[in-house]
Specification:
The complex is a heterodimer.
Chain A lengths: L4 E8 L10 H16 L8 E6 L10 H5 L10 E4 L5 H14 L5 E9 L6 H6 L15 H15 L3 H15 L14 H5 L3 E3 L2 E2 L8 E10 H7 L4 E10 L13 H14 L4 H4 L2 E3 L5 H10 L8 H7 L25 H14 L12 E8 L4 E8 L4
Chain B lengths: L3 E8 L11 H16 L8 E5 L2 H4 L5 H4 L8 E6 L3 H13 L5 E9 H4 L1 H6 L14 H16 L3 H17 L11 H6 L2 E3 L2 E2 L8 E10 H7 L4 E10 L13 H14 L4 H4 L2 E3 L5 H10 L8 H6 L26 H13 L14 E8 L5 E8 L1
Parallel strand pairs in B: 2-3, 2-4, 9-10
Antiparallel strand pairs in B: 1-7, 1-8, 4-7, 5-6, 8-11, 10-11
């Protein structure tokens, strides 16, 4: 059976326009910070799993070839995973599996994007659509998610107010996160309501920003963990699922792929009541309404109760299950790194290293990534206690 | 540690341009035929790892639309943006962890859509390499020149690789280019980028392949003749051609050594029975002989001069015809693994090697100047 694996180092770059750095330089910064955090050096790495989302954003094919040396993969095993927005989580999951396989002891996972290299990320995202049956809409991401939000709100009698509540919560949380991009002190529901409508029912406040960032996590096998760190983040399980892309036959407000991932992850980790057992959750809230939908997929509440859960205040920093203490994707979105940030933030919580955004006493956490043509879901569960 | 084995495989045809089949039809058919062959229902597939490339497909997050066609709906799934052999490597490690019984691996590439030159030039960084116009053939020419110069290898030695592989390809019903060429024809073909000549360049190929990888128990349920994955090594070296010695490949040496270490191989030429390598261009096969440890550095040409690596030789290399006969981007390396499986299970038909076969090596490569290499050791 699989070896036990823990996160022993995390490196994050700030989410902003890194106009003065090349893509490899930004990756190097992320990798260097993770190595520094773990006290390891490049020679300690057995392999690297490289993540990067669509190459059209930066106009470079196979960026892992260009960036390999910058992330410590000089004459080392390296391979690239690419699953769109979820890629950061998929790369971390890849590194976890490589260590769990018993073949590699210390594996570095790294993922990022420099979205400011493109004139508009939405032009890149429009090339996600099928060239014959969809690209003419040039829909980008907001118009697709607007359909998802409409479906969700109308099915359950919620309104865009519920999405805006998420937006305000996460923007205020972001004030505690030195790596977040959008910092809006004193942000209120009133201020969010007054932002322009971009794509009904999504307002500017419901959108994520455009960021350059890299996130890096180092995974180590059980027998190496103790010598590296006193506060590892043990990985309980990881899952990546696929919901299928057929737009017409799917209920966009009911993420069955995410539910499948959650069921598998909880079962394998022995979690029976996620709402009670989890201490903190980081979800991929690229758009505000999605956080509510993901609550339901992750079984933090029943189907249809995501809006009510938000209203109850349970997912605020002061609630019993804080969601996105980091400020989430709504406060920083580089796409390539965004899903790994969710996992890394969840890991930081059980490692007790989340500083200003630390949830007191967090022992069990969950990180979530989302991507593709809205159908990939990736999860990783972390524990303070060795499994 | 339990063994992981290949329980089934399927290859599409390889064609210069598949105009009548779109990408998803190609994937669906390839996977469907594999399931038919193995008798495994899609419901029984536990996980999927695919290999494809946005730049080849002309679609961002290209797996998003391809996944339905390969049966990934509501399954645990991931994608590597490397040759399919890397997808098999990843799936192998996933299975070793003990969480699943099997993994379906799918690699697809309609190389003709983007074209290999665009694919390669886009791999170049936008500041230093791309403006030079570097692409597949010109980068191979630089490497060939360095290799010939350093070791005194002649263009004739490299041309022999083409003659050998094209003769093998003629026997292989699964490959694309099925005609022989003479040494004279290769040497007289026009230079595209000196010293690379037209007949030393791999074809442009559209195609897809699928492999069913499984735990030992599951593999034995599916087939009487599973092919075991004994070890996998992979490595990436330096990016900029000016930063490394082009006449050899450090990453290839390291990948091979790691794979040999896992299996306990000391003398690959004696302990392996055949090899399928992603030679790309003629001379690269000779260069790979050396860096895979089949011979000393600079001695690769001898193995082809004395017939060792011929179809009927003591150590056949590329009895399928290699990538000089079919070279679908993202697919070619996994196709090498499949060709080894065909040989080891003695199901290669017309291109079956006649000697005893127990253990084979499959090589895949990714990037310009053989920057990344992967070596898989397979046995029956």
């Amino acid at each position: 059976m699989a070896r036990k694996v823990a996160v022993v180092g995390i490196g994050m770059t700030e989410n902003k326009s890194h106009w003065d750095m090349s893509i490899p330089a930004l990756y190097r910064m992320g990798a260097s910070r993770a190595l520094e955090d773990s006290g390891l050096n490049v020679d300690d790495l057995d392999a690297v799993v490289f993540g990067h989302s669509p190459e059209y954003f930066e106009g470079i094919n196979h960026p892992e070839k260009w960036c390999g040396e910058a992330v410590g993969a000089y004459n080392k095993p390296l391979f690239r995973i690419h699953t769109g927005g979820s890629v950061g989580a998929s790369a971390a999951i890849g590194a976890y599996y490589m260590v769990a396989s018993g073949k590699y002891d210390v594996v570095l996972a790294i993922s990022g994007n420099k979205l400011n290299e493109t004139s508009s990320a939405q032009i890149g995202l429009s090339t996600v659509y099928d060239p014959i049956m969809g690209r003419q809409f040039a829909a980008g991401a907001p118009s697709a998610v607007a359909l998802q939000a409409n479906r969700y709100y109308s099915t359950h009698g919620y309104s865009d107010e519920h999405g805006l509540m998420v937006a305000v919560k996460n923007r205020l949380n972001a004030l505690n996160n030195p790596y977040a991009q959008l910092k809006l002190p004193g942000y209120t529901l009133e201020m969010a309501r007054n932002t322009p409508m971009l794509c009904y029912p999504l307002r500017m406040a419901d959108m994520c920003p455009t960021s350059d960032a890299v996130c890096c996590m180092i995974f180590a096998a059980e027998d190496r963990v103790e010598s590296i760190t006193d506060n590892p983040g043990w990985v309980l399980n990881a899952v990546s699922t696929n919901e299928g892309v057929d737009y017409v036959d799917r209920d966009w407000g009911k993420p069955i792929g995410l539910r499948l991932a959650a069921d598998k992850a909880y079962e394998r980790a022995g979690i029976k009541d996620p709402r009670q057992e989890l201490d903190v959750v980081e979800v991929y809230d690229a758009f505000s309404a999605q956080e509510l939908i993901w609550y339901e997929g992750l079984k933090l509440c029943d189907w249809g109760e995501g809006g009510s859960l938000m209203e109850s205040g349970a997912t605020e920093m002061t609630g019993d299950i804080p969601v996105n203490p980091s400020g989430g994707v709504l406060s920083a979105n580089s796409i390539g790194a965004a899903a790994m940030f969710r996992l890394a933030e969840a890991a930081l919580q059980v490692m007790g290293k989340a500083d200003q955004r630390q949830v007191e006493g967090a022992r069990l956490s969950l990180g979530h990534g989302w991507g593709g043509a809205i159908q990939f879901h990736t999860l990783m569960l972390f524990s303070k206690d060795k499994p | 540690m339990s063994r992981i084995g290949i329980a089934g495989w399927n290859q599409s045809s390889f064609q210069e341009r598949m105009e009548d089949v779109n990408r998803n039809e190609l994937i669906f058919t390839t996977v469907y035929e594999l399931l038919e062959k193995t008798g495994v229902d899609i419901e029984d597939i536990d996980s999927i790892v695919s290999a494809s490339c946005d730049t080849v497909d002309g679609i961002s997050i290209s797996s998003a639309y391809a996944d339905d066609a390969m049966g990934a709906f509501m399954k645990e799934e991931s994608k590597v943006e490397e040759d399919g052999a890397y997808a098999l490597m990843y799936a192998y490690h996933r299975l070793l962890m003990g969480q699943w019984r099997n993994c379906l691996i799918v690699a697809h590439g309609k190389s003709s859509d983007a074209g290999p030159a665009f694919y390669a030039n886009m791999m170049c960084d936008p500041f230093l390499l791309r403006p030079l116009g570097l692409e597949t053939i010109s980068s191979a020419a630089l490497q060939a020149a360095a290799y010939y110069h350093r070791y005194g290898v002649s263009e004739e030695d490299a041309a022999r690789v083409v003659v050998k592989n094209r003769a093998a390809g003629k026997r292989n019903p699964h490959t694309q280019v099925r005609s022989e060429v003479s040494l004279e024809e290769v040497l007289r073909s026009p230079y595209l980028a000196s010293p690379i000549k037209q007949l030393e360049v791999p074809p442009v190929s559209d195609g897809a392949v699928a492999v069913l990888l499984a735990t030992e128990d599951y593999a034995r349920q599916v087939t009487d003749s599973p092919v075991w994955v004994d070890g996998v090594g992979f490595c990436q070296d330096v990016y900029y051609p000016g930063h490394k010695e082009l006449s050899h490949s450090v990453s290839c040496q390291k990948a091979a050594r790691d794979a040999y270490r896992q299996v306990g191989i000391g003398d690959p030429l004696k302990e392996l029975d055949l090899a399928e390598v992603s030679e790309g261009f003629s001379f690269q096969e000779l260069l790979l002989y050396e860096n895979l440890g089949f011979c000393d550095q600079g001695k690769g040409a001898r193995l082809i001069q004395d017939g060792t690596t011929d179809f009927e030789g003591a150590f056949p290399v590329n009895p399928s015809g290699g990538t000089l006969c079919a070279n679908a981007t993202m697919v070619a390396g996994l196709a090498r693994i499949i060709e080894c499986c065909r040989q080891l299970t003695r199901s290669a038909g017309e291109n079956q090697v006649q000697k005893d076969l127990n253990r084979a090596l499959a090589h895949a490569s990714s990037g310009l100047f053989l920057q990344s290499n992967l070596v898989t050791i397979l046995s029956i």
